[in-house]
Amino acid sequence: MPTPRSITPLLRLSLLVLSLALSACARDTAHHEESFVFGTRVEITTWGVPEAKAREAVGAVLREFDRMHRAYHGWQPSELTALNEALARGETATVSSELAGMLSEAKTLAARGGQLFDPAIGKLIGLWGFHRDQYEPVTPDPEALRAAVAAHPSMEDLTIDGTRVSSRNPAVQLDLGGYTKGWALDRAATILRDQGVANALINIGGNVLALGAKGEQPWKVGIQNPRGAGAIAALPLKDGEAIGTSGDYQRFFERDGQRFCHLIDPRTGSPATETRSLTILITARPRAGTLSDAASKPAFIDGAHWRQRIAAYGIDQGLRVDAAGRIQVTEALARRIEWLNGSKPDEVVE
């Protein structure tokens, strides 16, 4: 039998920010900072504000990201793990108003996605070894896996009454890792605007939110090739728009030549395999950042039915690279996209 190969996830963003190569004459109006939080790289670029003001605003955002990362970590001691321990004991817990709001919104979004992406399946994520900083080849215990699937943990099991949270199902183990990045995008936008920054690009591991523009030009991002270097397409973003990608190439391991990614199908208890990457564009609307993170995952998991899944969230702009490398794009997104490096769609869908 071939020896399993362990892969440390590369910090390849699912979206390559194309607009960060700034001309010499523009450098005095742009400020760019990077950090590492939520298990991924964060990039924030502001435009048109003095350096000192930009540093202060971006610093406030990064401090908020660090606070959120510590407060809602899925397996290191945090407010979220304390809640999970209470739910496992069948107890009702009192949580912060922020966490209660996150859980309420996540519950609504999970229902719209047919529970295919459900933050309550933390136990399944742990069985596959994704509650680690290094993803090593794992073979889950078959009995434990069957039991976790049969328990059918779901956000629907939660009762949220103000700041009091309980669950009718003790198998619920919350992991907000696929949701917090989007929430953080919206928080960052609020902080930057409050600090007087009207033009910025916020990138959290491939989830991107645009504020304003880059001078007289729109911010532009690239959609990552899921099996190679560079981008397959470029896309301009308007003020308030967000874009998010779910992919099988950031958090994964390989065993016996097969790739296992962190996006688990709760129906089978195993990583989804029908899609390499799924990108959605969220037009300007309230909670655009949160939606960019949460709405891509049911579509990624459901494979061939991806178009119906994004439509359930009111999204008509999406691009999918399937397991064979075929590119599908919606008509609405095809009208805006610029194909790069010889890429082109294999199918345009309504």
Structure description:
This protein has ten helices and 20 strands. The termini are far apart. 29% of the residues lie in helices and 26% in strands. It is an alpha+beta fold and 350 residues long. The strands form five sheets. It has a nine-stranded mixed sheet.
Using brief descriptors, characterize the structure shown.
nine-stranded mixed β-sheet, 20 strands, single chain, globular, disordered N terminus, four-stranded antiparallel β-sheet
Question: Based on helices, strands and strand pairing, what is the structural class?
Answer: alpha+beta
Q: Using the alpha-carbon principal axes, give the shape.
A: globular
**Largest sheet properties:** 9 strands, mixed
**Count of DSSP helices?**
10
Mean pLDDT across all residues, rounded?
91
In N-to-C order, the SSE pattern is EEEHHEHHHEEHEEEEEEEEEEHHHEEHEE
Question: Radius of gyration from the CA trace?
Answer: 20 Å
> How many beta-strand runs?
20
The percent range for strand residues is 25-35%
CA(first)-CA(last) distance = 45 Å
Largest sheet strand order = 2-3-7-8-11-16-17-18-20
Give the helix proportion (percent range).
25-40%
Uncertain runs are 1-15, 17-27
Q: What's the gist of this structure?
A:
By secondary structure, the chain is α+β, with helices and mostly antiparallel strands.
Write the layout of secondary structure elements.
Blueprint (H helix, E strand, L loop, with lengths): L14 E3 L12 E8 L2 E8 L3 H21 L7 H10 L4 E2 L2 H16 L9 H6 L14 H9 L7 E4 L2 E4 L12 H15 L5 E5 L2 E5 L7 E6 L6 E7 L4 E6 L4 E4 L2 E4 L2 E2 L4 E2 L3 E8 L5 H7 L1 H7 L3 H6 L6 E5 L4 E4 H4 L3 E2 L7 E3 L1
Parallel strand pairs: 18-20
Antiparallel strand pairs: 1-9, 2-3, 3-7, 4-6, 5-6, 7-8, 8-11, 9-10, 10-19, 11-16, 12-13, 14-15, 16-17, 17-18
